[in-house]
Amino acid sequence: MMLRPCTGDERGSSDGEIVGASRRREALHPTRTTDVLIMSTPSADARTCFEAAVRRVQADRLMPEADDSFPNAAGTLRVVGMGKAALAMAGTWEDRCPDDVDDGVAVVPEGHPETLPERLPRPSTIRVLEGGHPLPSQGSVRAGRRILEQADAVGTDDVLVVLISGGGTALSSLPVADIDLADLKAAYHRLLTAGVPIQPANVVRKHLTQVGGGQLAQAASPGRVETFAVSDVIGNDLSTIASGPTVPDPSTYTQALQVLYRHDLWQDVPGPVRDHLAAGARGRRPETPGPDASCFRRTETAVLGHNETALDAARKAAKERGYDVRMIKTGVDGEARAVGRTHVDKMRSASVDAPTCWLWGGETTVSVTGKGTGGRNQEVALGAALALEEMSADAVLLSGGTDGIDGPTDAAGAWATPLTAERARAAGCDPEAHLAANDAYSLFDKLGQLLRLGPTHTNVMDVQIGLVCP
């Protein structure tokens, strides 16, 4: 039977229920939560598990309670925050230490202050600024300057509390003196569209700006620096999260230059960027502070939450809904569309006789060659949709960014079922052509299979959920 093209009322609702044609063709299966028996579908269950993962890594669940482990300052205590979780982290910090914060500033993506959930406290002493993401803006430049001003004001008896999370690099991008914002933005754009992974990309970016690569700690020295991080990188490398503003930088100008050569980007970035990196590689610019720098003698850093934290919450939610969780894998990377196919291959090759769940986490990349709209999670789902066509069991592969944002779109990601490709063709969309054009967004939007959450005020990379109900 050919299904009719989806309409607007077939989109997933805000409470996680999935409605419309895809639900009518999915087998309903019972799940039990405490004493209530409910009927659900794999798609609805996948969204429920994803939302549980996101909720677990929000600031009010991650930030420590006020106790003796919190820093005490003989002088002033200043707070600076940068990243997608900075607003929620700053508000939660003030809420739990209302009398301790003397001054501070936090920078978040444009529009985020209007989207903070009511259950999360807002900061009052800590000023909130807005910057550009994923590309820096004039707001990012202003924020970077304000953050450094806070650090410069820290004395020997003072404490600087630093709250960092994913997106902090772009949001606090204050260019070095010989590079202007337009050149910095162009370099960031090429790193992004070429699919350069976050770690090597940040090696380049921290050598073009004044906050990352330990330079914030250098500005605050000899004051005490306490950093609390929400990790958005594989392996939770502190020198990569928000470009490591308060930890030693193991990378060099030469390595930054090599990243551009390795990815065939040297001629693609603006001349002032090439000149600055080349001068640094020749020793004509000071290196970012490394492991032996004295500015790190009074610094401490703690990772509050990471991708594994979110995956564990998704695991618990899946088990509560009656699924056998067969695998949890972290550190997933690679080309997004290939990752989607690989996940489905794992699901197809398994022999299951009960509702079964697979969980993956990490951060894929997209090499942009087309002119469409989408993001890495939507591309994972579209790659999965083509592989799922040959699957007879009721199944779903959902891929979403825990920050609620996937590429330059209003969606966190998307989900695919064995019927997705068929429904797309019936709606006049060629899945293969959309994949070739990097245009997953318009296809999933037409089918009502975009995962729309809005900004979540956290970021621990991506979560992918595969469910099979025989």
Detailed description of the structure:
This protein is α/β, with parallel strands linked by helices. It has 2 domains: 212 residues, 3-Layer(aba) Sandwich (glycerate kinase, domain 1), CATH 3.40.1480.10; 174 residues, Rossmann fold, CATH 3.40.50. The chain has 17 helices and 14 strands. A 6-stranded parallel sheet has the order 5-4-3-6-7-8, sandwiched between helices. The chain is globular and about 65 Å long. The N terminus is likely disordered.
Strand order of the largest sheet: 5-4-3-6-7-8
How many E strands? 14
The proportion of residues in beta strands is 15-25%
CATH topology call of the largest domain: glycerate kinase, domain 1
**Number of helices in the DSSP assignment:** 17
**Content-based structural category:** alpha/beta
- Named at the architecture level, the CATH assignment of the largest domain is 3-Layer(aba) Sandwich
Computed CA radius of gyration, to the nearest angstrom: 23 Å
Q: How many structural domains are formed by the residues?
A: 2
Q: Helicity level, as a percent range?
A: 25-40%
| The top level CATH class name of the largest domain | Alpha Beta
Q: What is the H level of CATH, i.e. the homologous superfamily of the largest domain?
A: MOFRL domain
Oligomer category: single chain
> How many strands, which pairing sense, and closed or not: the largest β-sheet?
6 strands, parallel
